[in-house]
Amino acid sequence: MTELATKLCLACFRHFVLVCGVARDVCLPGIWLLLAMVSIAQQSVPAPPSSPELSRAVRTWEFLPVVGTRAGLFGNEAGRFEAWVYPLKIFRDFHLTFHVDDRALPAETLARTLTVRPDAASIVYVGDSFRVRETLCVPVNEAGAVILLDIETEQPLEVEASFTADFQLEWPAALGGTFEDWDERQHAFVFGEEAGKFSALFGSLTARDARVAYETNYSSTNENSFRLGATPKGKETKVLVFAASVTGFADATKTYQRLLSSYADSMRESADYYRAYLDKTVSLELPDAALQNAYDWARISTIQGLVNNPYLGAGLVAGYRTSGSSQRPGFAWFFGRDSLWTSFALNAEGDYSTTRTALDFISKYQRADGKVPHEISQSASLVSWFKDYPYPYVSADATPLFIIAMNDYASQSGDVGFVRDKWDNVWRAYQFLRSTYDSQGLVENAGVGHGWVEGGPLLPVKNEYYQAGLGVAALQSLSNLARLVGKEDVSKQLAAEFDRSQKVLDRAFWSVEINSYAFALKQDNQREDEVSVLATVPMWFGLQDAEHANQTITQLAAEDHQSDWGMRIISRQSKIYDGSGYHFGSVWPLFTGWASVGEYRYHREFPAYSNLRANALLGVDGSLGHFTEVLSGDYYQSFSTGSPHQIWSSAMVVSPILRGMFGLQIDAERRQIALSPHVPADWTSFAIRNVRVAGIGVDFRYRKTADSVVLETKRAGSGDCWVEFSPSFSLRTQVVKVELNGRAVPFKLQPNGNDQHVLVRFPIADGLSTLVIHVKNDFGLALTNELPPLGSTSHGLRILSEAWNASKTELSLQVSGLAGIRYELSVWNPGHITSVEGAVLSKPGKLEIQIPPGSDSYLQQKIVIHFARP
Fold it and tell me: Rounded to a whole number, what is the distance in angstroms from the first to the last CA of the chain?
């Protein structure tokens, strides 16, 4: 503070004492308020950071979350919010009113534009003679939040802030009797309970004219409010803050005062935190701008699931939604399987620290018999959660996922020491799995806990294929973990058990009758022959026979399974289907992500990319910058009861891009980066940066021409490092030679039923290295899908299958489209085509497909593309 400011402040304090004429305990808060006013006057509102930003016209119904690791604001784009400092709910129904002349204008009627950044969100309200920008920020490590109001007005305007107090603990704990009152000294409402342990404040340095909720025999109101002082013609910034503590009023006050006096620093630190996060994790440069934007926001949205609870520690919560008059904000408590599925995305992008935090958190609450927790409320330590409630261990799938996730983390990060520390947890999880084996040696659900499906007409079953597949994948993972920690005999035994179990799994669940893997086994070990997207989970881990996987994918690629906005859990043609059924008809981005990764693994890039892109586009068409939990199976619309910011939905943008489309996999032990891209045929370039293995950072740049694919690598750090590069080509493409920095190097061709990969393994030297794959007769098709208008049904094209003849002179496609609609495919190297049946090669590089008119339904059509003999 400058010398002049100090003198002014002290002069004001003396005047304050004179006016008060009262004791020291009244005046000491006064000097803090005066000092804070001087501090605020010297602060400048931080400029928007150079990080992702999204903006659109306000949708009043859409969810708007602003979160840190210790607090959150949950509301809608009209500007109504509830406030949380975990595990406390402070208030709900916060909203603004603008007073101009003798009019009181509700802010929600004037909300016009929303802008979101990783660290903050802003709503612009516009009246006839004024504009107010409300910026909401929850500093990433603070137990509170800041609300800035930037006011521009042509005539005097005063803002009133109103809310309903709702001072309670998150479900299922409760505080009982609580109170709120106005504290004139703090210019804030104070919240508390009789024991004095839990406390909160909400106010502003300019707050005045408070109205306090009351109840009498004759009248009552639940609403509290305060005004912020009139703004004359011109510009002015008002600052509101709330803060809370679980250790008493003094601690809450300290946080409240710190946020008021240094809010700009707190906001800047939050912006820096997210910028640094994007910089230190894997970054991309993609030719698809929508996909590029979605990937960046998915990384942000995923890490926003990290919560630090003062009683339980740090871990990943499942998602966010307003709680309304209840005390349960969406899925903002800790879930085992949600964290574990999310960890695969975190590992892929190189955020091993958060994965380790999540695994450590979950392992702390593992049951004595080895079962891994399903859900842990943020108030679990304040009630007898693990003893008296049915929820903590209700699922069966978290246990095998824990083993799989531990192996994925160790293999990619190289953190074998963590595995040694957690070996007892991992081994007990395996012992629990063994206790659930049926007579075939497959883990079961009956009497153990639900797999994916928690209720509805798909139940009851004995073994879900989803759950049984995870059990088999866990054996393979545990075998590797045992090897990493030096338990070679155990590793070999588990590897042998995995080999046997994988064969049993395929025999038990493959159904010739439906040409697909069955949903489950019934009590009599007969298959429940329902085709389900859940079959793509064993596919994700490579457990399926290739031909069986392809037949399953062909069915799942059809419109009755794959909507324009993602994968239904079962077919629309099923007798038990209901588009509003949470577990028997709805679309989950989680399912869509499973399908995409599995389809890429089995080289089915058309449905894989459609699923990937459907998930990605949700981030700009719902809760802005976030990815919803669940949507209707019939209409493009999120469920009204779902969590609009669901963490594993965000992760299911990252995993399909990195693990699926790019085939990115780190092997820390071998110091190797595997890159096996199935990129769309019309992509001529992309870049992947900051891929890290064993302390070495590597950047990749890919370029494609008609006769070559070029991969440039650049490394930073010392030590050996290898790349295993195996890009996808059509089966027609011929490889002439491969060169590394101008010298020929060996390569292998790896064909399959859908494409072929050129495998090259090479060391990355210091500086820039260039690998060139020279080809001829290269060819490809690309389909770019879009989301339909809100409330619509599906209308996009589906490519169900593709097949080359033996001489590679014919490519047959089976497609499905809406009757009467014309579709386009992009063609790479169209000059190789001699003729087309069932479609037209129209403008350069485009293949037009006209579906015949008819009823309002999908029709199949065969297309045959003819080529000259290679």
Answer: 79
Q: Measuring CA to CA, which residue among 224, 255, 23 is closest to residue 141?
A: 255
Opening angle at CA 285, ends 283 and 289, nearest 5 = 120
Alpha helices, H only, 304-422: 336-348, 352-364, 385-388, 398-413, 416-421
CB 59 within 8 A of CB 284: no
Q: Quick count: other Cβ atoms within 10 Å of Cβ 817?
A: 22
Q: Return phi, psi of residue 333, to 5°.
A: -130, 175
Q: Which two tokens stand for residue 853?
A: 């008119």
Residues 6+ apart with CB under 8 A from 115: 53, 54, 55, 121, 122, 124
Q: Which helix (H) or strand (E) holds 256?
A: helix 249-261
CA distances from 763 to 659, 677, 770 (A): 22, 19, 11
Q: Could you report the per-residue pLDDT of 666-695, keeping only the tens digit for each?
A: 999 999 999 999 999 999 999 999 999 999
Residue written as tokens 């009043």? 60
Q: Which residues contact 417 (CB under 8 A, 6 or more apart)?
A: none
Give 695-746 pLDDT, tens digit per residue: 999 999 999 999 999 999 999 888 899 999 999 999 999 999 999 999 999 9
- Both structure tokens of 533: 């997207």
Structural contact between residues 656 and 617, judged by C-beta atoms closer than 8 angstroms: no
Two tokens, residue 296: 């960046």
Q: Distance between CA atoms of 454 and 452, rounded to whole angstroms?
A: 6
| Residue 48 DSSP label | P
Backbone region of residue 791 per phi and psi (left: phi > 0; alpha: psi in -120 to 50; beta: other values): left
CA–CA separation, 625 and 295 (whole Å): 10
Ramachandran angles phi, psi of 109, nearest 5°: -80, -10
The answer to whether the bond into 460 is cis (omega within 30° of 0) is yes
Distances (CA, A) of 390 to 199, 313, 375, 376, 387: 30, 22, 10, 11, 8
CA R_g for the chain: 29
Q: What is the pTM of this model?
A: 0.94
Q: Is 52 helix (H, G, I), strand (E, B) or coil?
A: coil
Cβ(290)–Cβ(616) under 8 Å? yes
Q: CB-hemisphere CA count at 13 Å for 716?
A: 7
| C-alpha closest to that of 359 among 309, 422, 414 | 422
Q: CB atoms < 10 A from the CB of 720, how many?
A: 11
Extract the tokens encoding 603.
């080289």
Lowest-pLDDT range of 46-60, 202-216, 243-257, 399-413: 46-60
Q: Residue 313, by phi and psi: left (phi above 0), alpha (psi -120 to 50) or beta? A: left
The answer to whether residues 83 and 91 touch, using CB atoms and an 8 Å cutoff, is yes
Strand intervals (E) in 544-655? 562-563, 566-567, 645-646
Name which of 423, 421, 422, 448 is nearest 434 in CA terms: 448
Residue pLDDT, tens place only, 559-612: 999 999 999 999 999 999 999 999 999 999 999 999 999 999 999 999 999 999
For residue 89, the cross-strand partners are: 84, 168
Cα separation values, 699 from 160, 543, 696, 716, Å: 52, 31, 10, 9
- Report d(CA 870, CA 807) in Å as an integer: 8
Pick the closest to residue 562 from 570, 143, 808 (CA basis): 570
